[in-house]
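Teaching note: in complex prediction, the entire set of molecules is handled at once rather than each chain in isolation. The prompt given to students was simply: 'Predict the structure of this complex.' The entities are:
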Amino acid sequence: MPKNILNVNTKTAAVAFFMGATLVSTSSWITPQAGELQMLPTTKIEWRYRSIGVETFVNADIAALIKFRDLSREWKKQRGAMSSITGMSMLRPYQQIIGMGKDALPFILAELKEEADDPDQWFWALSIIAEANDLIPPQIGANVQGDYQAMAQVWLEWGGQQGYAR
Amino acid sequence: MPGSWPQHELPNLTDANCAITSPKKRGYNCIAWAAGNDTRNWWPDPVGIGYWPQGVPREVTFNAFLAAYRTLGYEVCADASLEEGREKIAIYGQLNADGLLEPTHAALQLESGQWTSKLGNFEDIRHTDVGSVEGPLYGTAMFYMSRKRRAA
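The expected output is the structure of the full assembly:
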């Protein structure tokens, strides 16, 4: 069976994510029929697409996207109606997103952009990832603290300057 | 219950004791809402994400929360009863994973004697009493504070 390795970079993955790409959703598996694709998980860092006569392996950038999406979903579920910024940031899925390091930045920033005028609390993760990777985080003044819309704008500008956001 | 919050976290809320008063929104939380602010999230986190009144320790303790509301003129009072000319807040808490009592939620008393709460990232609600939002998520009402009611 011939193999085709897709070189999907992180930015492409983020775009695919927000176009609602079905390739990252296990609920969208396609029943294999002639000419159709079937998505099969192989390892944690590799997903395989199989169609008649062709196997395609997706690289680690897509795997990072899948991981981020799963962790994000689980974080929101665990957070529930919690009000504590500290508490929601200490939840395991959120900490695992922080643990993804710089790989998570394009996805977080894309989320912030997508959330537009109702951004979520991604700022703790952004701050910690930036500091842990010797990236100078933006200055968030006291007049902006707690104002998620204004904070998202600051971080999106920072992401653009750093090359992590488009 | 038509609210979008996880029902099991707030099991005391029913159609009879709760009405939804806003769409869901992440831009402010319960601590801000009780303080009369619907444009910011208030929280004394160590990273500096949440707004916190200047000069009040950024620590998740009742002392810090009481001090934060004191900056708005509130003082600790005895109970949740409706007092003419006074507006009250209730601060909720429960034991954290380390066994320490920690603030979790705040609610504001309306002139009618009912209460209003913002439920995390979900909706604002009007609820009949402080017990309506007690439960596994917010624990119980631990402190009450009051101040002279201001003109609407």
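Point out the following to students. The first helix of chain B runs from residue 30 to 34. The CA atoms of residues 101 and 145 of chain B lie 18 Å apart.
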